[in-house]
Amino acid sequence: MKVLIVEDDQKVRKHVKAALQAEGYTVDECEEGEEAQWLLENYNYDLAILDLMLPGKDGISIVRQIRRQGFSIPVLFLSGRSAVSDRVHGLDAGGDDYLTKPFSTIELLARVRALLRRRSPISPTKLKFEDLEMDLTRRTVSRAGHPIELTNREFELLRLLLESAPNPVNKAIITEKIWDRCFDSETALVNVHINHLRQKIHLAGLPPLLHTVRGVGFILKRPTDK
Fold first, then answer.
1. Which ranges in the chain are annotated with CATH 1.10.10.10?
2. What pLDDT score was predicted for residue 182?
3. Is CB count within 10 Å lower at the N or C end of the chain?
4. 15-24, 143-152, 175-184: lowest mean pLDDT where?
5. What is the per-residue pLDDT across 74-83, written as a single tens digit (0 to 9) for each?
6. What are the DNA-binding region positions (predicted)?
7. How far apart are CA 203 and CA 120, in angstroms?
8. Structure pTM?
9. Do 62 and 68 meet the contact criterion of CB atoms below 8 Å apart?
10. Quick check: helix, strand or coil at residue 25?
11. What local confidence, expressed as pLDDT, does residue 1 receive?
12. Rounded Cα–Cα distance for residues 190 and 72 (Å)
């Protein structure tokens, strides 16, 4: 499980990070609102722990924006504000839980576990976008009923794109998820595999679905979408 901690108090941030890592979580951290926004939009986290008051952009604004964009990641607010009105404001903005400072580490971990349990739906066995379908159990892919043969790497790349659709996936995410390494995001390696995948799923007589978003990455997009 991967957790993002956004807290400008270094002592609190390091304490929470250490507690989560001791429980086996993978943890990223940052202290500024704009950076937190970018991380949440571009990386797949299982949970975010957000301070309300942050430099650059506050926690409420961050959560409102990611909710408008369709992100359902659970959010636990941390705040020194303990008034009922503050808690209600945070939850109404899209937060899933609210914990006031100072807090018990034991309680924090319990709330984290509860939020993650809530978020654990049954994993889908099939993914679909338009007429492009993937069966995760049989590891098969088809488009408009026509089977498509993919390599293991191409299969995982398409799976990542299907899981993210209709949102784009940037090159850094692809190299991290598919190759489990941090290549330069401009490497031709990603482009080569994308081109091979594009050639296989763009069948004659059918509109293209896999597109490049300049400066961002790649996206599965309906032909009529702008």
1. 126-220
2. 56
3. C
4. 175-184
5. 999 998 888 8
6. 124-222
7. 36
8. 0.55
9. no
10. coil
11. 80
12. 28
CA distance 156 to 215: 22
On whether the CB atoms of residues 10 and 46 are closer than 8 A, the answer is no
Nearest CA-CA partner of 155 in 185, 127, 180, 191: 127
What dotted CATH number matches 126-220? 1.10.10.10
CATH for 2-118 (3.40.50.2300, 2.40.160.40, 1.10.238.10, 2.60.120.260): 3.40.50.2300
DSSP 96: S
pLDDT (0 to 100) of residue 185: 47
Q: CA angle at residue 81 from 91 to 72, to 5 degrees?
A: 25
pLDDT at 112: 94
Domain with CATH 3.40.50.2300 in the chain: 2-118
Answer whether residue 97 shows pLDDT above 90.
Answer: yes
Per-residue model confidence as pLDDT tens digits over 25-38: 889 999 999 999 99
Q: Which DSSP category does 8 fall into? A: S
